[in-house]
Automatic annotation (TrEMBL):
This is Cation diffusion facilitator family transporter. It is found in: Membrane. Residues 223-285 form the Cation efflux protein cytoplasmic domain. Its main location: membrane. Belongs to the cation diffusion facilitator (CDF) transporter (TC 2.A.4) family. The lineage of its organism: Bacteria, Pseudomonadati, Bacteroidota, Sphingobacteriia, Sphingobacteriales. It is a multi-pass membrane protein. Pfam families: Cation_efflux, ZT_dimer. The chain crosses the membrane at residues 7-29, 41-61, 73-94, 106-129, 149-167, 173-191.
């Protein structure tokens, strides 16, 4: 079984156990806030189950119908998880408002508090582990699952503090007030998750990654690479697709052009740890390129080099040679 699938499966099984523990805590205490936490755990289980399937599907090889692979299912998985989180938050708020109007007694608070504290600790550790692994495996699904568990852990710890406060003050209405606050916190985190997943589904640029790539290219540029433009970077799950245009001396033969393109490919592959696919289009230089071309001993140069154009996000992403910008 692939590492991603093992991690998600472990997360699913642990989420089921923790959900049962939270419902046990609710039946012991009859606390609306604990029921809120338990209800969110149902979302954890559903989300982990869908995440398992999406990671399985994303790992499938490219085929005729999916030439870029199946990686984008991970963005859809994160969207579903974020939507479920938002729904859970809304249900929590509605139930809590109802209990403010029709309160119920809370019993055995300390027993329930210990159980919730334990589940929060486990969720926090598991969420931290998933987020750390998502960076090495480059999986938005695992990252989403990890962030969701961290959110759950934070809400559980907040709930523990609230239950302790109720125990010492006997102000039972705080139970519903805490639940409402947790509900809004959960909705906010669900929104952040769905926002990121929608951006991925719509091929939104990862400006941080793209800026790092441009900086790396600028530091390692070769004189024959007169300019790079129309640079785009897209994520498909764990895969990254990069395409760009590179301006080369027009008199290079096909073998030389192929070698230069391969050099760019190799350079970027060393900088990016993930599986990367390139589409590099070679453009011939024009006389107007001479003033910023650094190639020495060029027999067709029509004017001397007068400037060096630093590659930046604003000039390499435009679909224009640099003299046109």
């Amino acid at each position: 079984m692939q590492p991603k699938l093992k991690i998600i499966l472990a997360s699913l099984l642990i989420s089921i156990v923790l959900m049962l523990l939270k419902f046990l805590a609710y039946f012991i205490t009859h606390s609306n806030a604990i029921l809120t936490d338990a209800a969110e755990s149902i979302v954890n289980v559903l989300a982990s189950g869908f995440a398992f399937y999406s990671v399985y599907l994303a790992a499938m090889p490219k085929d005729k119908n999916h030439p870029y692979g199946h990686g984008k299912i991970e963005f859809f998985s994160a969207f579903v998880e974020g939507t479920l989180i938002i729904i859970a938050g809304l249900v929590i708020i509605i139930k809590s408002v109802f209990n403010l109007i029709y309160p119920q007694n809370i019993v055995q608070i300390l027993d329930g508090t210990l159980i919730i504290g334990f589940t929060g600790l486990v969720n926090g550790l598991l969420g931290w582990y998933l987020i750390a692994k998502s960076k090495t495996l480059n999986s938005i699904t695992i990252q989403a699952d990890g962030k969701h568990l961290i959110t759950d852990a934070i809400s559980s710890f907040g709930l523990v503090l609230g239950l302790i406060l109720i125990y010492f003050t006997n102000l039972n209405y705080l139970d519903s007030v805490i639940s409402i606050a947790l509900g809004f916190f959960i909705i906010y985190n669900g929104y952040r998750l769905t926002r990121k997943s929608v951006g991925g589904l719509m091929d939104e640029s990862d400006l941080k990654a793209l800026t790092g790539l441009v900086s790396y290219l600028n530091q390692n540029r070769q004189p024959s690479w007169i300019d790079i433009h129309n640079l785009r970077m897209q994520h498909y799950g764990a895969d990254i697709h990069i395409d760009c245009h590179v301006t080369l001396p027009y008199y290079f033969d096909l073998n030389r052009v192929h070698q230069e393109v391969s050099n760019i490919d190799d350079l970027i592959s060393k900088n990016i740890n993930d599986q990367t696919e390139f589409f590099i289009h070679a453009d011939p230089c024009l006389p107007k390129c001479c003033h910023y071309c650094s190639l020495e001993n060029c027999n067709v140069r029509q004017e001397p080099q007068t400037k060096i154009i630093t590659w930046r996000l604003d000039n390499v992403t435009k679909n224009q040679k640099h003299f046109e910008q």
